[in-house]
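note to self: dont lose this again. the chain is below, predicted strucutre after it. 286 aa total, dont forget to put it in the shared folder this time
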Amino acid sequence: MKPLRFILTLLAFLALAAPRGEAQIISVADEHVNVDSVRRSFADQHYYFGLYKDNYFIFGCPIGYRPTRANSDVKFQVSVAQKLTKATLPLGTYLYLYYTQKVFWSVLENSMPMTDLNFNPGIGLAKPIFVKGRFLGKVTLTLEHESNGRDSIQSRSWNKVSFGGSIMVDPNLMVYGKFWIPIVDGKNNRDILKYSGIFQVGWDWRSNNRRLGASMNLVKRKTKFFRGFFDYNLTAEFSWRLSKTANQFLFVQYYNGYGEGLLDYNKYHSMLRVGIVIKPTLFSEF
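---
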């Protein structure tokens, strides 16, 4: 099967697999997300295959430079989660298996090479937080591996023990943070923390009808001197649901900084891309 046909088929499958229509919109009561709906989403609805991070297919070019065949590309991401146990584990946690694959595809060049493939499997615990009948967010503990599957001088890999947390400020806004203990085993990317970072923070906003969305993610790079905003990798995203009964969104993503992909993790990128995204229930993961 040709690469483009395979990817489009896979994204279509993910769109059909995701909850559709009103089932994708968590009900709201007394200005707070309905606790019973959230409990069911952890205990029942996510027992089988489901979405983890955003699944998107976007095309774009750099900001500040003339677009060419060499610097314009397709970026797509496929991300899924599998809850391994139906029963609740100690401390009210749930065990998940995660897999995310991010690809950079030079579709305008001869032979349309996929220049960088990033594989990111993981396994971890997630605990939803409920206080006085309110869903406040969740905390996670995850063991992650990330590599590009290359050999020789193009090989890149590292591992992370990640600690994350998110807080639902209101039914429309989620703020989150995540930091990790790195285990850098790739001999060609010993300095990856200087570019791919040591922790991240951000927010994710959705409109009342879940038609509009916006998010921002900041990844703090490891530097000797604090230089404010210049020490961060920035991802800003905007989405608009195509219809009330669909889970496909028109999608705009802007990336500015280092570490967008593993192969060129130490090279600066400022990229604007547009396309289609399929989103998980509630708020997106990062």
